[in-house]
């Protein structure tokens, strides 16, 4: 098993260095990686899946947001002449505010976190809609929320347990199911409207329905954490890193990716060390889970703002 994984990683790096991973080909590669991820789990126990899933989410998840300061500096320097120190200070303040809000108002902040994450996922997945003048905010948000609630719907008991650990509030199964139905109906209506309104590139819209089917299969077969890890890393973080690298360095290839990693490394390590410190300090599982999700929510809020600025920046490559 170890030899198979090693050979796959080696092949992945070879293809990557040969510039195979360009954005136009990526969805096909993502499908292969997704089902490969499902195949790999057949060799792992559930506990090991959870452990590896958390490690991957934290490593790649933090990595794809580790260059937020550099991206903000690139944008704000042209517009407002913000210094790096001011940008860093504002970023930290938003993170601290998000963490405090999550700790004292967990239910409200968790709901806000899910909605914002839904928009963020939809924004990345449907990035090509920037070509059109029509406002597609609602469509993107519903798309991302549908992905999340497909995951929640296939793992209702696990989701209820996690929410209870974070908020001490036990939600009913019907709430998740009914919300999934409502989002599905609203998404279908919005999908038809956008599909008919934007008469070009309609093939892409049909592909998105196929991708949703792929996500549903992944979420159904895998565990909660592993299913989210596959989507978050393969379908969100990696495409986001490609976009960010293009924005910062004008193109995406092996060498610009290495520059991206080098620039992000310091913030990446600091974040991981900080989280490890909290884990050692608060080894009570319930308390750590609350802090863990507070941390994720806190860094998500400013990250969404940074990516929104980047995707709407007129100088974007």
Could you outline the blueprint of secondary structure elements for this entry?
Layout: H1 2-17, H2 26-41, H3 46-63, H4 68-79, H5 84-104, H6 106-125, H7 137-154, H8 156-167, H9 173-197, H10 202-221, H11 224-249, H12 254-281, H13 285-311
Helix pairs in contact: 2-10, 2-11, 3-11, 3-12, 4-5, 4-13, 5-6, 5-13, 6-7, 6-13, 7-9, 7-10, 8-13, 10-11, 11-12
Architecture overview:
With 317 residues, the chain is mainly alpha-helical. The protein has one domain. Helix content is 82%, strand content 0%. It has helices at 2-17, 26-41, 46-63, 68-79, 84-104, 106-125, 137-154, 156-167, 173-197, 202-221, 224-249, 254-281, 285-311. The model has no long low-confidence stretch (mean pLDDT 78).
List keywords for this structure.
globular; 13 helices; about 325 residues
Portion of residues in helices?
over 70%
Quickly give the structural class: mainly alpha
Helical run tally: 13
Total number of distinct structural domains: 1
Show unreliable segments: none
